[in-house]
Amino acid sequence: MKGCTAVAWWDSGTNVGEFDGHSRRVLSCAFKPTRPFRVVTCGEDFLVNFYEGPPFKFKLSHRDHSNFVNCVRFSADGSKFITVSSDKKGIIYDAKTADKVGELSSEDGHKGSIYAVSWGPNSKQASLVLTVSADKSAKVWDISEDGCGKVKKTLTCPGSGGVEDMLVGCLWQNEYLVTVSLGGTVSIFSASDPDKAPVSLSGHMKNVNSLAILKSNQKSILSSSYDGLIVKWIEGIGFSGKLERKVNTQIKCFAAVEEEIISSGFDNKIWRVSLHGDQCADSDCVDIGSQPKDLSLALLSPELALVSIDSGVVLLHGTKVVSTTNLGFTVTACAISPDGTEAIVGGQDGKLHVYSVKGDTLTEEAILEKHRGAVTVIRYSPDVSMFASGDANREAVVWDRVSRESIRTGVDPWKSRGFLTLHCEIVSFFVMVFLAISCLRFTAGVATWNFLFASCSSPFKASEIRSGLGVQVKLKNMLYHSARINCLAWSPDSSMVATGSLDTCVIIYDVSKPASSRITIKGAHLGGVYALAFTDECSVVSSGEDAFVRVWKFTLQ
C-alpha cells in the first residue's frame, strides 16, 4: 500500500503541500517546531523523506536504515531530528539541511527493534533523548555536539518478561518519562530520579464483558475481558493491578466473591480460582460438556452455581456437577436466588421460567410472559423482593415477588370468596371486555390483557392467570433503549435498576417511580455497554466494547 501524508491549515483545512516519495506505508512523521519549517516522514520502505515549505515539496530522501523506520522526531530547539528503526539503529540529522550528523552508539545499545523516540522537552534537556525497544528496555541517551549518542541511563520497566512487555511507545513529558508496553502498561518515571520505581497504569486491550464488586470493600471493582485478563480497580484511585491466573483462558462469563473467582470461556469448562488479596492461587475446573451461555452464583452459598447451556441448565456445587437438566426450550439467560432455592431461566421465546431448587431437582413453578424478544439478562435484587429481566427487543421489566407467597400456600382464592362477589366480578369483567372492544382498544397483545384484568375488580393480574402464581410486574414500559439490552444491575438498597444496551447508553430507573423519570447516560461506551454494577446508591460502574471501565455519579431527581 502506498504511503499517505497530508498537511493542512488548522482553521480552513486547506491542503499545504504534496507528500510524494513513499512506496509503502508511512509509519511516522514530524513537524519542525521552528522556522524555517520542515516536515520529515519515514516508513516501511526504509526511507526517510525530507520536505521544505510551506507549501511543502519533496526535497530529498535518505536510505540509511536497513529495516522499517518506525519513528522520527525533531528536537525541542529545532536544530536536529532523529530516526529510529527495526535495524536497532538511531540516526541524527541536521534539521535545516537534513544532512546526517551522527548515530546512537551500538555500545550498550538496544538488542531489538527500536519502536519510538522522544527528545527532552526544554533547553536544559535538549541534548537528551528517550528510546524504547522490543528488547523490553528504555534508554536515555546524551547527544553530543558532533551528533553521536551515548547511553546515559537504562530504565527498568516492570513486567514478567513476556512478549506483552515489549516497549512500543514513549514520551518525555516535562519532568516525567513515560513508556508504553505492547500489553498496554503505562510506566511513568521521574526524569530527575529515574532509579525510583515507576508508577504503573494499565487496563484492558479488548472489550470488557463482566464486572464484579467485592462486598468486603464496595470500592474494589473486578473487570474481565474476553482475552482472559482480569483487572482490579479502586474507585477514586484507578488501576490497582492485574490478577494473573495460572491458566489464562478466555473469559465469556465471570463472577466473583470475596475469596474466589468463577469464570467460563469457550472450552466448555467452568473455572474456580482462589483469590488471596490481589493474587490468584490454586484453580480447578469442571467440564460441563456444553458451551456455557450464562453463569449465576448463589451469593449466600457461592459454592452453588447455575450455568445455562443451549438446551437447559447445569447445577454445580463447587467443581462437581449436581445435575444437568434439559428444559425443552432454547435457554438464553439464567439467575439463581442468593439462598439457592429458586432459579429463573429465560428463553429464546421471551418467556421466563421460574423453578424451585431442591437438591438436584428443578421444579417448574411459573411461566411469565411479558417479553417480546429473547431474554438476555436476569438479576435478583439484593433484598430478593424483586427481579429484573431484559431482552433482545430492547425492553426491561422489573417483577415483584412479594405477592407470590399467598398463592403458593395452596389457598384457592376463588373458594374464599362468596358466590355474589364472584358473580359481580365476572359481570364486571365482561362489561370491561365489551367496553374495550367498542372503543377499539382491544388487541391480541399481552399489554391489552394486562389492562383488562387490572381494570376489573378482581385482585388478579394477567401474569397471575397465565402462570398460576402471584408474580406481578413492578415496573414496566421500560422501552427507552434503541437496541438489545446486554446487562443490568441493582443498587445495594434495591431502589434502582440500571440497564446497559448495544445502543451505547446506560439508563437508570427508580423502581418507586414511573419509567419516564429515568436517568439516561448517552454514549457511555462506543460499540455498546456490556456490564454494569453499583458501588453505592449514587454510583454505577459500566464497561463495554471500547475496553473502558467508567464510574458514573448521578443525583436522583
From TrEMBL:
Gene Ontology MF: a single term: actin filament binding
One Gene Ontology biological process: actin filament depolymerization
Key words, A-Z: Repeat, WD repeat
Pfam families linked: WD40
SUPFAM superfamilies, sorted: WD40 repeat-like (SSF50978)
GO cellular component: cortical actin cytoskeleton
Domain of life: Eukaryota
PROSITE patterns reported for this sequence: WD_REPEATS_1, WD_REPEATS_2, WD_REPEATS_REGION
UniProt-listed PANTHER family: WD REPEAT-CONTAINING PROTEIN 1 (PTHR19856:SF0), WD-REPEATCONTAINING PROTEIN WDR1 (PTHR19856)
Protein's recorded name: Uncharacterized protein
